[in-house]
Amino acid sequence: MPITVYEKHGSPDGRFVNPVDGAGSSFTYTYVVMGTSNVTTATGAVAAAAPLVYLADDSQVLVRQEFIPKVTGPDSWEIGVRYGTEDDRKSHETPEAGFWRFSFDTTGGTHKVTQSLETIHRVEANPADPAPDVKQAIGWDGKNVNGVEIVVPKLEFSITAYYQPASITSDYMKNLARKTGRTNDGVWLGFAEGEVLYMGSTGDGDVPLASGARVKPIPI
What we know:
single chain; about 220 residues; mainly beta; 2 domains; 6-stranded antiparallel β-sheet; 4-stranded antiparallel β-sheet; 2 helices; disordered C terminus
């Protein structure tokens, strides 16, 4: 059964205050999810649909702070997505189970290119000594192809998910360990199959379980 996500009628619900107040504005979007009994899958579907930030009418930037899942029936959910200012008091409280926090880094990676797609032009210092055909090699010094480093798109992100301590069992930890080094086998958070490489997780008792994931660099 395919997963369906749509915003609930009457959403969002919230409050907007003057930025100098200090408390900040906040609001909650409510999404309906149908087609799964798994809370992680349902929350992931909403995470792919809900924007990371919202610009309020008074130019306040509200960031996505937490997901609040609630079962409404077999394979159906209502999931609230709360937005607030970064200095909101709730931002400094210990999150409840079900809260997801995202962090990401799009700092470009580097890739060495040693061959060009084509040679546009060759210049001879002496017409009697024509420039050699180096077969699209870049950085040829007469002995070696040195190539050139270029910046390529790269995205790394992590998800800190808060769980009830009793949910983190030895079987759950073993399952995470076995999935390390694998890629997603279906569309997840808007990424295509095979696009996200899972790098493993860390956790300690009742502190949050941090799941790290990295999107593979786009090949040249």
